[in-house]
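Assess this:
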Amino acid sequence: MSNEEKLLGYLKKVTIELHETKQRLRDVESAGSDPVVVVGMGCRFPGGVASPEDLWRLLADGVDAMGAFPTDRGWESGPGVGGFVDGMADFDAGLFGISPREALAMDPQQRLLLEVVWESLEGAGIAPLSLRGLPVGVFAGTNGQDYPTAMALAGESMEGYASTGSSGSVLSGRVSYTLGLEGPAVTVDTACSSSLVAMHLAAQSLRAGECDLALAGGVTVMSTPGAFVEFERQGGLAGDGRCKAFSDDADG
């Protein structure tokens, strides 16, 4: 092999390696510029929190958000202590084009999610109804539905709406249907990690190009005190209602 042939072979090898190096560099730079960003938020939490600003003030001021059983859910009063969201019996059904009878059949979790999604979009400067027909995904975390028990005890006639009002899958679908969204609609139940998993799936969907905008989060509203009863029987509740995870003083 002549020197010219050796030099040509060497140059070809270097050129290929340089091309591969540039491609790896582009991949690294692309991975470092994640297109997923938060453009709006909304929330409801115990302690009278009705916005992200309220939540910040609660944390900054060290407010105690624990309280007695709510008085607007038809529960018997008792010594129970917990974190409860206010106003779960309130809902502006007309804003969403929902009849009073259907609203009554809807799990409070569906109602709350609709309200907070609407507030989140408005906070981002997006008119909620302007998203109709667009590839917008909804990823909602939940942790069970006990509203059917409350409906049965109430003795109200909810025929025609009971199934959709208490279905977990409808939790995300209700938002998509109401706003006319055409992206994925996913309800996730992985217990205490549901909201985090929903956000993870939303980010994956955005990166994969399945949707251009994603609404992600979670909701939990206790319609009955059933969870308190079960945890009490298991010895899982602290006597003072305070969580003491990993503490020597833990008593629940």
